[in-house]
Amino acid sequence: MQWRSIVLGLLLLRLALSFVLWLAFGLGPSWGFYQSFPINFHFNVQKIDLFKENEKANARSNTWLNQGLENGAEHGGSCPRNSECDRGNSYLNFFEDGRDEYARKYNTFPETLKAKMKGMAKEMFYFGYENYMKYAFPKDELNPIDCQGRGPDVLNPSNININDVLGNYSLTLIDTLDTLLVLGNVSEFHRAVKLVIDTVSFDKDSTVQVFEANIRILGSLISAHILLTDSKQPFGNIGLVDYDNELLHLARDLAVRLLPAFENTSTGIPYPRVNLKNGVPPNSINETCTAGAGSLLVEFGILSRLLGDSTFEWVARRAVKALWNFRSNETGLLGNVINIQTGQWVGKQSGLGAGMDSFYEYLLKSYILFGEKEDYKMFHAAYESIQSHMRRGRESCNEGEGDPPLYVNVNMFNGQIMNTWIDSLQAFFPGLQVLNGDVENAICLHAFYYAIWKRFGALPERYNWQLQAPDVLFYPLRPELVESTYLLYQATKNPFYLHVGMDILQSLEKNTKVRCGYATLHHVVDKSKEDRMESFFLSETCKYLYLLFDEDNPLHKSENKYIFTTEGHVVPIDERFREKAWRDLFPGDETLHADREKPNMPPANTSNCNRIPDERRYALPLKSVYMRQIDQMVGLL
Predict the structure, then answer these.
(1) Cα separation values, 333 from 230, 266, 272, Å
(2) Which of 70, 164, 372, 480 is catalytic?
(3) DSSP H stretches of helix in 496-574
(4) Which residue among 175, 212, 361, 401 is the active-site one?
């Protein structure tokens, strides 16, 4: 029996020692984000003091790692700049040593390596595109594992994960038209355009989501038409013999088939789905998401201005204004799901991800394209509300104590945290911050998402920032992090973002490549796969990766300025889109005229997607702190 007593004693001793170490060095999950940082005892004593005082303090917290769902407490504050806060309590002080190591690692990117990555991105695109054309066309998508085409799920109409997107109209071919031009393949672009003209019809008994048909199909047709007919010819002489605006006619035909979604709604907010042949299905629900209803203005607006027909822009703008008018009077925030008949918010969650993301994006991009001041006023007010109610962490990105900034999901009426996850779509937001001129905060937020990528080699669809673990584990080859990486590189020209792009490119090649393309990751940890390659992988993910490494691309060298739609389609910032052929139809609408920028006025406080002039390039260099932060965080996120 003596040996049993010895074993029991050793076990108890080990438990006691573990408890002491836990108490002294971490306080469990509240600091899990940083537990691989070099730590000292002073930091942990301070954490203990903060932990004790937190039970009594009513001050706003500048940390989010130890926050759960809030119960009416104030939140979101931080140490003011140049205050008496002890910089020693910030995690930044742990990066003072070894900066040279990280500067050497990230501050250069050889031209030969850049050329290699550019070639790798091009090969990635063509491997997916050519296999789609070989095994799937004219169907909508490629199943890259089975090497077969995929169309709508006609046997299960309720399968909206498939049927919202696939309309039996050669989706992937249409969605990738302008990518072929970006890669410099004029001959294949011409062949693809002819195939679309000769084979695509929207007279289909397909029920699709208005939002998806708009951004993937309508946006691509408009982009390809503009690039084909652009007299400035950014890609050289790409005119197509006998082209007679067929892509524009197809775009109008599709838009007309989407218009019934805007009929018979009390608010002007559209139904989420239409049947391309029969209009709104009789069993349609009266609920839609904010992004779905409020992200139509760019494509519909350009189409109206190309055709001289106000109808499309008018219905899209009416929907945006209706959503905006239903925002909370207290916080200025919008929810994520609304009843289109009553205007009541069915989903009260306000965030930056699914259901909300492109609504904010299109407020700013509509202003850049059309010059309507009202669009920017809405965006600016929304951005202020986001900063006031969703942002957690310290006030300054790179100084002060507390956790780095994070944007959480909150209740639209009171700003209280609703859950502890973020989703991968939110990774678009640093790119939008770049367009708005808030580059420093874009740098900081981008580092957070890249840290998650570095840990998993992908972005899980949902990530729990409190548990430091994925909530939803799949990754469908989304482009948002790549897009933000590209825009940050254009804004800063810092080689760090080339390293990020290389990491993403190599991860995709290693973890998602299969027999006939690139497959959705079913599980970001074990890297199991699903047999689907969504069209945005070719239209966005590959495009942004290629442009990141192609400094001499016509989009970067042209004197013209361009912007990307939310599906990554290229459209010029053109004076003709600042004019309305129908302005005289509304002589009594003074706001319509007063709020329009003059055509020769540049968008205020925005940078363009293709090129940032040297005098406006963001001068603040990336500190080694960001780079080391990422390397240190990946083991814990």
Answers:
(1) 39, 22, 21
(2) 480
(3) 496-511, 536, 542-549, 554-557
(4) 212
d(CA 466, CA 64): 8
Taking each helix axis from N to C end, the angle separating 480-492 and 496-511, rounded to the nearest 10 degrees, works out to: 160
Phi, psi for 356 (deg, rounded to 5): -130, -30
Task: Give kind and range of the element (H or E) at residue 571.
Answer: strand 570-572
Structural domain spans, the chain: 286-419
The catalytic residue among 140, 175, 357, 374 is: 357
pLDDT number for residue 631 = 55
Mean pLDDT, the chain, as a whole number?
Answer: 82
Active site residue 551: no
Q: What does the alpha-carbon distance between residue 408 and residue 392 come to, in Å, rounded to a whole number?
A: 7
Write down the catalytic residue from 140, 461, 531, 540. Answer: 461
Please name the residue that has the structure tokens 């072929």: 180
- Find out whether 150 and 518 touch, Cβ atoms under 8 Å: no
Q: Which of 94-103, 402-411, 437-446, 504-513 has the lowest mean pLDDT?
A: 94-103
The confidence score (pLDDT) of residue 6 equals 54
- Single-letter amino acid code for the residue at 31: W
Q: Which two tokens stand for residue 459?
A: 């972005």
Q: What pLDDT is recorded for position 427? A: 97
Which range has the worst mean pLDDT, 19-23, 67-71, 123-127, 242-246? 19-23
| Mean pLDDT along residues 544-549 | 98
Question: Is 96 a known active-site residue?
Answer: no
Residues of the binding site: 566
Residue 504 CA to residue 517 CA, distance in Å, equals 17
Question: For residues 333 and 327, what is the distance between their CA atoms, to the nearest angstrom?
Answer: 5
CB proximity list for 89: less than 8 A, separation 6 or greater: 43, 46, 401
Q: Which residue has the tokens 């500190």?
A: 623
Residues 181, 543 contacting (CB under 8 angstroms) = no
Burial, 102: exposed, middle or buried (Cβ in 10 Å; 0-12, 13-18, 19+)? Answer: buried
Percent of the chain residues topping a pLDDT of 70 = 75
H/E stretch holding 209: strand 207-209
Say whether 86 is catalytic. no
The answer to whether residue 372 is catalytic is no
User: Residues at the annotated binding site for Ca(2+)?
Assistant: 566
The dihedral region occupied by 70, where left means phi > 0, alpha psi between -120 and 50, and beta the remainder, is beta
CA distance 570 to 563: 6
Residues 6+ apart with CB under 8 A from 605: 436, 437
**Residue range 162-188: average pLDDT?**
97
Residues 486-510, mean pLDDT to the nearest whole number: 96
DSSP state at residue 79: P
Which of these ranges, 42-46, 222-226, 368-372, has the smallest mean pLDDT? 42-46
